[in-house]
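User: My collaborator sent over this chain with a note saying "see what the structure looks like." That's all I know about it. Can you take a look?
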Amino acid sequence: MAFGGFRTIVESYGKQARSGSAGKYVDGFVLPLKKGNVDSYQKMSEKASTVWMEHGALEYVECAGDDLNSEHTTSFPEMAGAGEEETVIFAYIVYASKEDRDRANAAIMEDERIKEMMKDEDHPFDPSRMAYGGFRTIVEAFKN
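Assistant: Without extra context I'll predict from the sequence alone. Here is the result:
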């Protein structure tokens, strides 16, 4: 288990009320990022969040490492292979279902705004070092 604290840098919520976790699906990712690139990464993520929300995401949250020293577990920097000059980005995107996620991601990959972002050779991060996966929700608790 990796453990650490993160400060939110991008957070978007849809207008749909959150009610229980049945069927919800989450894409999650973790990536190392040079500390000097957090601002440019945040700007890129703010643009991306708009696209994901337009295509059906219920929530889009990106967080930058803030309290990553863990004495009793694997730290996020260790897990992500982050160097001394890097922090860790922890992010997740929530969908109503896996089917909604699959439909949204197909549309997102065809969206011209994302195609333009992916053409940019001056990415603030190395995509090959990003860990990504889809997760079915098993527990969700929140206050209204």
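A starting point for your reply to your collaborator: Residues 2-136 form a domain with the Alpha-Beta Plaits fold (CATH 3.30.70.100).
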